[in-house]
Write a structure and sequence with these properties.
- With 316 residues, this protein is of the alpha/beta class.
- It folds into two domains: 5-87 and 169-308, Rossmann fold (3-Layer(aba) Sandwich); 98-168, no CATH class.
- It is 34% helix and 22% strand.
- The protein has helices at 44-52, 77-86, 95-98, 105-116, 121-134, 140-144, 153-165, 183-200, 211-217, 235-240, 245-252; strands at residues 5-13, 19-28, 33-37, 60-67, 70-71, 88-91, 171-175, 203-208, 220-225, 228-234, 301-303, 306-308.
- The strands form two sheets. It has an eight-stranded mixed sheet, with helices on both faces. A four-stranded antiparallel sheet has the order 2-1-4-5, with helices on one face.
- Helix 4 (105-116) crosses helix 5.
- It is globular.
- It binds adenosine-5'-diphosphate (ADP) and magnesium ion.
- Adenosine-5'-diphosphate (ADP) binds at residues 14, 20, 38, 40-46, 56, 274.
- The site of magnesium ion has 4 residues, from helix 1.
Amino acid sequence: MSALLEVERLCAELPGGARVVDEVSFSVFAGRSLGLVGESGCGKTSAALAVMRLLPDGAVTRGSVKLSGESLLEAPEARIDELRGSQLSMIFQEPATALNPVLTVGSQIAEGLTVHQRLKPRAAAARAVELLSSVGIADAEVKARAYPHQLSGGMRQRALIAAALACAPRLLIADEPTTALDVTVQAQILSLLTGLKRERGLGLLLITHDLGVVSAACDDVAVMYAGRIVEQGPVAEVFSSPRHPYTAALLKARPSLQSRGHPLEALLGQVPPLGSRLEGCRFRPRCSRALEVCAVKVPHVGEGARRYECHHPVGT
Ligand SMILES: Nc1ncnc2c1ncn2[C@@H]1O[C@H](COP(=O)(O)OP(=O)(O)O)[C@@H](O)[C@H]1O
Ligand SMILES: [Mg+2]
């Protein structure tokens, strides 16, 4: 099975030279979802923006990003614009700012349709209502005429998903799509996304800091730490037998039924600040399993779908 999105050794430096994405490789397959997970500040959003070619001017990106075999990093700007309207779509992290407060929800969705699919205004407005209805918004006709502030957080997130689906993309990147929502609404949005994946064969890259979201909605997972993917594989395998101490620590730091009444085994310390140059494994200062060699280099263990970067993996 060839990948819909294939990212190889992607590096991104922000203007000023700080490297926020470091040799990142992962694949997203049609009809599957990959969770990109890690603490805040690990570079998840930056990696997605690099894929979309939306990093700020002056950022430098290297490596390879292929969508159905077509190189995105080398494509001319006009071609990227075309692909962003038709093949790949992203739901951005801040739902409050992603919708324009002075336009109705329906007209914002319709706008994309008139630009990218050259629909006439009336047809675009009708299609916008259909799209809102297809993401589970009851009374779509009424809601299309509403302004963003008149909708609940969950409804706004559904509207953003509808907007992202307007041009029937093959790949959807969703950056923390449920973080601002309460737990029941989170579950509804995740089941909407997994339904789209199943029914339309959409490839989904789901960015989250929440391992619960990954177990609920993802087939594969890539764990990111300080700009690198330190472990990846099928969710069931990675979560049942994590190899990288960072993955194990994240899993332990998660409240669960078993840990109720016991203090959480907290993950001590912080993600190293942006641009800090640390030789060897970047997790080493927080790692209880670190060896001397960890200060010198990182190993690449495993290949293909199941990989990790650790000299002293958990379970050995
Ligand atoms: N445009 C920017 N200018 C300066 N620093 C940035 C910018 N975007 C992100 N960063 C920094 O890059 C690092 C990675 O951020 P980000 O990709 O947002 O991580 P995540 O999504 O995992 O929280 C952080 O240290 C963040 O502060
Ligand atoms: Mg982010």
